[in-house]
């Protein structure tokens, strides 16, 4: 049941999850997103906006001022109110999707009356553009320090993760053939939808191997394509995408543990496993390279400091090493789109 919101109060049903990308697979329009997301990243914010939700209640700091992420700004620009809970409380694990939440904007409180602790009222801070600008200014002042820490961490871990380029990836026998083919790797990063839309003519003409990294598979399906391979830890891809007929590859920890494998098996599907350090994006690119791809086009890939800080990573050692190994075979989707248009028009 959804209630209208007024200037003093927001009353609606909610969806709660500590992982925002998991929450986004369940939430519907006009509901409230209850999450635990420090420094809300821009990609998550844009997807929240797309869901047309009523408000965001965050049991963490939506913007800390450590680095200039733009997620909170995007939400406020879209007129979605954002409230940070100011006190720690054990109520979060007891929250149940579809129950009621009441935000009193005048008293700056939030209450979950349908849950196990109906009398608990928590204080919240509502974000305004004025508060946002202050913290963003602080973030830009802190950026040099964060960048220094990031570079130091990257170099330190590069020596530990160098085997990702020195030794071949342990790739199981795949049904999908890469040799001599172009490959498109889709990641849910900044502007991934715009980039995917822009290179649709290239995909239709060249028919490259299509790899969806977790939720990137859903992006491919959204634009009318069927992924050949879905790779990742399986925490943000939909059941529908997994059932699309794509070959499924679960990214496992270096020691072999693969938490995402159980989800695939519970759907009655088969999967192969690749153990490796780094991100699933790194593994997808390296897999395409080592399997003989002629050219690899990256869509939504993470390539700068802010991208990695937004994902909670303190460095990008594996990503740096993988891109060094792949070299000129890797092309950003924006470049493909521009070049392809020029060729067509010529």
From TrEMBL:
<dbReference type="GO" id="GO:0009229">
    <property type="term" value="P:thiamine diphosphate biosynthetic process"/>
</dbReference>
<keyword id="KW-0808">Transferase</keyword>
<dbReference type="InterPro" id="IPR036759">
    <property type="entry name" value="TPK_catalytic_sf"/>
</dbReference>
<protein>
    <recommendedName>
        <fullName>Thiamin pyrophosphokinase catalytic domain-containing protein</fullName>
    </recommendedName>
</protein>
<dbReference type="InterPro" id="IPR007371">
    <property type="entry name" value="TPK_catalytic"/>
</dbReference>
<feature type="domain" description="Thiamin pyrophosphokinase catalytic">
    <location>
        <begin position="208"/>
        <end position="244"/>
    </location>
</feature>
<dbReference type="InterPro" id="IPR047795">
    <property type="entry name" value="Put_SteA-like"/>
</dbReference>
<dbReference type="GO" id="GO:0005524">
    <property type="term" value="F:ATP binding"/>
</dbReference>
<dbReference type="GO" id="GO:0004788">
    <property type="term" value="F:thiamine diphosphokinase activity"/>
</dbReference>
<keyword id="KW-0547">Nucleotide-binding</keyword>
<keyword id="KW-0418">Kinase</keyword>
<dbReference type="Pfam" id="PF04263">
    <property type="entry name" value="TPK_catalytic"/>
</dbReference>
<dbReference type="GO" id="GO:0016301">
    <property type="term" value="F:kinase activity"/>
</dbReference>
<keyword id="KW-0067">ATP-binding</keyword>
